[in-house]
Design a protein that fits this description.
Layout: H1 2-27, H2 45-75, H3 82-142
Helix pairs in contact: 1-2, 2-3
Length: 143
């Protein structure tokens, strides 16, 4: 019961995060009203994602706890049902899959963020060089 309540809470948080991201992109004119997913990842989305990650990881460890508890129950001599062990294995597979996919997403977003920062720095350097070159040309024509 506790796991179901917590999972519902995390799903509500994810809904508000995703709908907020889509709303911001619609407000900025980067998405249409009928879009249901967001392909790109903007730097301002990190604030909401950083808030979400502890709750998501706590849910993953709740899955691991359920898997361990069910496995321990399946080892008891009174437990003759095979379903307890299978549910424990199912929770463990959920824990592994969710943890791996979340880590992959975080690593991907971090690399996108660092790549975006690198591109911005290069763009700023290029802009500064162009501005300096233009300013030199203007000073020569004034003399």
């Amino acid at each position: 019961m506790d796991f179901s309540m917590y999972l519902s809470f995390v799903q509500i948080l994810q809904y508000y995060y995703q709908s907020g991201c889509l709303y911001r992109l619609r407000a900025l004119g980067e998405r249409h009203n009928m879009d249901i997913t967001v392909e790109g990842f903007q730097t301002w989305m990190w604030r909401g994602l950083k808030f979400m990650l502890p709750f998501v990881y706590l849910g993953h460890f709740f899955q691991l706890y359920n898997a361990y508890t069910l496995y321990q129950i399946s080892l008891l001599p009174e437990c003759e049902e095979w379903q307890v062990l299978m549910m424990g294995m199912t929770f463990f597979v959920l824990f592994l899959g969710n943890s791996i996919s979340t880590m992959g997403t975080v690593i991907s977003k971090l690399s996108d963020k660092t790549q975006l920062q690198r591109l911005r720095r290069q763009s700023l350097l290029h802009t500064d060089k162009v501005n300096k070159h233009d300013n030199k040309g203007r000073h020569q024509h004034r003399d």
